[in-house]
Amino acid sequence: MVKEKIALDTNIVIDVFNNKKNIITLLNGYQTIYLPVTVCGELLFGAKNSAKSQENEQKCHDFINNCSLLNINELIAEEYAKTRNELKKKGKPIPENDIWIAATCIVNDIPLATLDSDFKHINDLIMIDLTNKDRLCERSEPQSYPIVGRALE
Questions:
Q1: Is 43's pLDDT higher than 60?
Q2: What distances in angstroms separate CA 143 from CA 52, 94, 139, 151, one per listed residue?
Q3: Domains by residue range for the chain, with CATH
Q4: Do the beta carbons of residue 138 and residue 20 sit within 8 Å?
Q5: pTM above 0.90, yes or no
């Protein structure tokens, strides 16, 4: 059964780049893969900061071009402020970029796939919790997958 939509956190995309079979199998079960623009920035920064920057930047751009982007707007800024304030009141601060990613998913009503447990502190976020890393250690051979298109070729 194909599910409708999912947004990816940076750590999930990195697992795709590392050919984690279970992650790729999970993602192939979705019709539309979304990337919050904040995730794109994190991926591109990591690529530029790597030893193989040109190769990794191209891989990131190929992957980004095969996903639907979620941009930031005023509604998301409002949600960001609300979420950040709630986290502050709870005494549960999380990284700024994670708040932007969560706000983007909340406003667009798209579940977030992540390995990051910080997101569990955000009330209105629909999260696909993949923190059981034992399930994720199996790797597949590098190949092209329908969901990621040319990103792994």
A1: yes
A2: 20, 35, 11, 9
A3: 3-152 (3.40.50.1010)
A4: yes
A5: no
